[in-house]
Amino acid sequence: MDSLYYRAVTTNRRGIFLVAAGREPVPAGEAGTAASLAAAAVVSFLKGEEPEAAPVTLAFRPPDGACAACLTCVRTCPHGAMVVQGKALVRTRSCQGCGICVAECPAHALELPEYTDVRLLQAAAGDKGGN
Q1: How far apart are CA 2 and CA 59, in angstroms?
Q2: Furthest-apart CA pair in the chain: how many Å?
Q3: pLDDT tens digits for the chain (131 residues)?
Q4: Disulfide engineering: 127 pairs with which of 84, 107, 115, 122, CB 3.0-4.6 Å?
């Protein structure tokens, strides 16, 4: 499994759920309970009741040609949200806004708009002014 920190039936991919047997062998008497938990998670997901943060949009920093298509973002994204087709593209439905691709990009071609360098430096200096 990709992460030890996800709940028993969820994975690091939105909309992908596991019944306990998908993780480890389950005694026959517990299989029904495991299936019920997975089904409840699917129903919650379909109702939009995901216990996840709101989607975060990635932005590309200027210049537009900064992306070297090195695949670092694709390799490091734990959510499978990055693809490269000439340059890096974000699968917005998969992106969880964790920022790993931003931190690992050697060309500094990506940024999270809510966490730009300027905003982070202002916050560190105690400036509450936005932008």
Answers
A1: 26
A2: 59
A3: 444 434 567 676 777 777 765 656 667 777 777 778 778 888 888 888 765 444 556 666 655 678 888 999 999 998 888 988 888 888 887 887 888 898 999 988 888 877 777 777 888 887 665 55
A4: 122
Predicted structure pTM score: 0.53
Which amino acid appears at position 25 of this protein?
A: P
CA distance 90 to 59: 9
- Is 96:79 a contact under the CB 8 Å cutoff? yes
Q: How far is CA 104 from CA 85, 100, 107, in A?
A: 19, 6, 9
The domains of the chain are located at 1-52, 59-124
The end-to-end CA distance of the chain, in Å, is: 39
Would you identify the CATH topology of the domain 59-124? Alpha-Beta Plaits (3.30.70)
